[in-house]
Amino acid sequence: MSQKVFIISDTHFSHNNVITYENRPFKDTNEMDEYMIKKWNDVVSENDLVFHLGDVSISGAKKSEEVLKQLNGRKILILGNHDRLTKTKWRKLGFEPHGHYLYKDFLLTHIPVDEIPLKVAVEEGFLKGNIHGHTHSNNQHLPRELYKCCCVELIAYTPVLFDEFVSI
Question: 147 and which of 12, 93, 96, 142 could share a cystine (Cβ 3.0–4.6 Å)?
């Protein structure tokens, strides 16, 4: 069976305030976590690779472990501003932590990179763009020819195939 590659960001598992901030359609974190775990595992198999672009879980290590051990696939984590566990702990939770990652000529980051150097890199043919998280539904200020946001609010709370995501 061939490996599929997915992308997602800003799941914020167990983070109560994000439900309010982003108007997520869940009554509480238990409902949100269960829904996102199901959506994840409906599309991702144990064989697949998932790039998670940060802010995985906003809870302690024990609660994070309860939630994250349920997620299928090999997981590469681009550390976000809320991902405060040590790299060793992330590895124990099944995530390979990185500060950024280059995949298929896209720079994968949590926070969008500076526009001027990105524009130059794209114009010179070094990059195709920046795929990021962090901005949630507030990303209208970023030029779409350079930036692609994969926050869960924008992708139906479900990991999406990388190649389909970049072709949108």
Answer: 142
